[in-house]
Recover the amino acids of this structure.
C-alpha cells in the first residue's frame, strides 16, 4: 500500500467463479489519498483473475471518500476570467506553460483562449503527437456536424501553413483546426484570438499562436465565419481549462496561465488578473478530490488527476494573481 510497508502475497483459486480473499490490515495515519497496488507474480501468464471490487472494512466508514462513478478521467478544472463589466472584447491574449512533471501525461488539453463560441490552446494527444488547437462552434444544437443547416454553418476563411481543418462533433459541432507541432514543456507559448468582423447575423473569428522557437512571431491557425451568430459586440465568457479527455485519470495534469489581456475596439488594453474557479468534480457524478488551482506571483495555475494532491480550493472561489502592468506589443495591422 502506497508503495511502502509490507507486501502481501495472495493466491486466487483456479476455476473459481467468485472468491473473496483477505489481504491484510493497514493503519491510516494521514487524511490524504492512499492506494493499493496489485501486481501479478507470474508475468508470463496468458490469463489473470478479474478483480471485481476492493472491499474495505474500517472503524469510521463515513470518513472514507472515493470515486463511486465509472468515470475514469481526471476532473476538468476551469478559470473563468473576470472582465470589467463595460469592456467590449475584440482581442483576447494569454500565455501558457506546461511543467515538465506532466510531460508524459497524454490525452491532455491545456485550453487557453476559451470564449462563448469557441476555444484554443495546446494538447498532448499521445506520446508522439502534440497540437495547437483553434475551434469554433455552430450555434445549431447537435453533436453531429452533418446535421447543421447551411444557415448555421461555420465556414473556413483562411488557415495557416500545415494546419489541418475540418469538422468536429460529440460536444456540440462546428469547425476545427489544429497544427501538429512538437511544442515543449517548461516553455511559454502565446495565443491570440480576435473578432475580425461582425456583419449582419455572422461574425468572423481568428486564432493565432506564437512560440519561442522563432522569437514569438505570430502564426495563423485559422479564421472562421460563424453564421447565425450571437456575437453582438465582441467576445464574452472568457475562460481556460485543464482537461483529461482519455481514461488515464491516474496521471497528473497541470499548467500555468499568465499575462491575460483584452483589447477593446478602440485599442485599449485591459489586464485580467482575477478568475473564478470551477470544476467537473462533484459529489453526485464524479467524486474526485485531486484537483486545485491558485496563483504563484503573476501566474495562475490549475492541476488535476493522479490522486496526488487534495483539492486546495472550492468551486466558485475567486483567484487573484499579481498584475504585470505592461501589455504585450502587437501590431494588429500586420496580422
Amino acid at each position: 500500500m502506497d508503495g511502502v510497508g509490507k507486501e502481501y502475497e495472495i493466491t486466487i483459486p483456479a476455476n473459481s467463479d467468485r472468491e473473496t480473499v483477505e489481504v491484510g490490515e493497514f493503519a491510516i495515519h494521514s487524511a490524504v489519498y492512499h492506494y493499493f497496488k496489485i501486481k501479478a507474480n507470474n508475468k508470463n501468464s496468458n490469463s489473470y483473475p478479474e478483480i471485481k471490487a476492493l472491499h474495505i472494512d474500517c472503524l469510521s466508514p463515513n470518513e472514507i471518500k472515493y470515486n463511486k462513478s465509472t468515470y475514469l478521467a481526471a476532473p476538468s478544472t476551469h478559470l473563468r476570467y473576470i472582465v470589467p463589466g463595460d469592456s467590449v472584447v475584440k482581442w483576447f491574449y494569454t500565455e501558457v506553460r506546461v511543467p515538465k512533471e506532466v510531460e508524459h501525461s497524454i490525452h491532455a488539453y491545456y485550453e487557453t483562449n476559451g470564449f462563448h463560441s469557441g476555444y484554443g490552446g495546446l494538447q498532448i494527444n499521445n506520446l508522439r503527437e502534440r497540437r495547437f488547437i483553434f475551434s469554433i462552434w455552430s450555434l445549431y444544437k447537435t453533436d453531429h456536424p452533418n446535421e447543421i443547416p447551411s444557415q448555421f454553418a461555420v465556414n473556413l476563411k483562411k488557415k495557416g501553413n500545415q494546419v489541418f481543418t475540418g469538422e468536429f462533433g460529440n460536444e456540440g459541432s462546428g469547425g476545427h483546426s489544429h497544427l501538429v507541432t512538437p511544442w515543449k514543456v517548461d516553455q511559454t507559448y502565446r495565443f491570440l484570438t480576435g473578432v475580425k468582423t461582425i456583419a449582419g447575423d455572422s461574425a468572423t473569428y481568428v486564432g493565432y499562436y506564437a512560440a519561442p522557437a522563432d522569437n514569438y512571431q505570430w502564426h495563423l491557425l485559422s479564421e472562421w465565419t460563424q453564421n447565425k451568430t450571437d456575437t453582438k459586440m465582441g467576445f464574452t465568457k472568457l475562460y481556460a481549462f485543464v482537461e483529461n479527455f482519455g481514461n488515464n485519470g491516474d496521471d497528473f495534469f497541470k499548467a500555468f496561465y499568465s499575462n491575460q489581456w483584452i483589447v477593446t475596439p478602440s485599442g485599449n488594453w485591459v489586464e485580467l488578473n482575477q478568475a473564478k474557479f470551477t470544476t467537473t468534480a462533484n459529489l453526485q457524478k464524479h467524486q474526485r478530490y485531486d484537483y486545485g488551482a491558485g496563483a504563484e506571483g503573476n501566474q495562475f495555475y490549475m492541476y488535476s488527476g493522479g490522486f496526488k494532491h487534495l483539492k486546495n480550493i472550492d468551486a466558485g472561489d475567486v483567484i487573484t494573481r499579481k498584475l504585470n502592468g505592461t501589455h504585450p506589443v502587437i501590431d494588429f495591422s500586420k496580422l
Q: What stands out?
A: Residues 77-334 form a domain with the Jelly Rolls fold (CATH 2.60.120). The longest strand covers residues 188-199. The chain has one domain: 77-334.
